[in-house]
Write a structure and sequence with these properties.
131 residues; alpha+beta; five-stranded antiparallel sheet; 3 helices; 5 strands; 27% strand; globular
Amino acid sequence: MNLRPLILDDAVLQQIARVKEFARAHPIGIHELFRKVGANQPVGDDPHLGLLIPVGYRVVYSYEQQPAGWTHHLSVSVDEEGKWPHEQAVIAILNAFGIEADLSKAVAVFKEDEYEAINVIILADSGRPKP
């Protein structure tokens, strides 16, 4: 099995901080989330919520209200058709976002076939958006 490297250097960590800050300043309420889903308008279409991480990872992060409460939603894909990100890479990226990476506590972990992405939805600590 060939695993691609994941580079989480200072430049990437700064990009992660920028994306996370934007997402927290622009939380997606449940009605807006349902509207986007119904209109087939992926949250990842907003360039402020995504970043590329070497070598070949695409990450989208949003802070959104799900039926279970306010959540961190992370979507990770790679730039090679037919390939998926490795679980350990997803966990490392979650950690880089400052999110507890215990997947057993996730509200949902699912594959998104259309984008060949792994999605992780984890309850946020406070249960409501922070400024």
